[in-house]
Amino acid sequence: MSKLRSFEEIIMGKSSRQLEARIEQSQQEFQHRQRANWSRLVPELAFVLLRCGADRKRVFTNEIASEAVVTYQGDFGYEKCPDQALVLLTLLEAKNREWGYVAWSWFRGWKLTKKGLGFAKDVERRRAAKKR
After folding, report:
1. What is the pTM of this model?
2. CB 75 within 8 A of CB 52
3. Which residue from 43, 67, 52 is spatially nearest to 116, judged by alpha carbons?
4. What is the residue-level pLDDT of the chain in tens, covering all 132 positions?
5. Strand (E) positions, the chain?
6. Is residue 38 a contact partner of residue 91, using CB atoms and an 8 Å limit?
7. What's phi and psi for 82, nearest 5 deg?
8. How far apart are CA 50 and CA 39, in angstroms?
């Protein structure tokens, strides 16, 4: 005769632990993919800000989104419909202490920091060298 298992044993069994491990692993993979996406989008947006003149003046999100669509086709939406939400999220990520490329806010407009300006000029040099 087999021993009856309790509800807790059934719920917290081996398969439940495996499921928890899979969930944790998929969350870590998602975070890594998200990190890789920011690593690609933030430098692109720093270059777009340079092209918009954000080293000299404040530039608003709609101007940045329009220029981003022209410069990086497909990454930030399409010509008739730029993805302003993605641009705003990328700007907020670029504003984080880790990056530090952008200053100001959605209401005041965006401007490149000294660090962001140096990086954007480096991206510009690399793009020019790639075209040659």
Report:
1. 0.73
2. no
3. 43
4. 566 666 666 666 666 677 778 888 887 777 767 766 788 899 999 999 999 999 999 999 999 999 999 999 888 888 888 888 889 989 998 999 889 999 988 889 999 999 999 999 999 999 999 887
5. 77-78, 81-82, 102-105, 109-112
6. no
7. -70, 145
8. 18
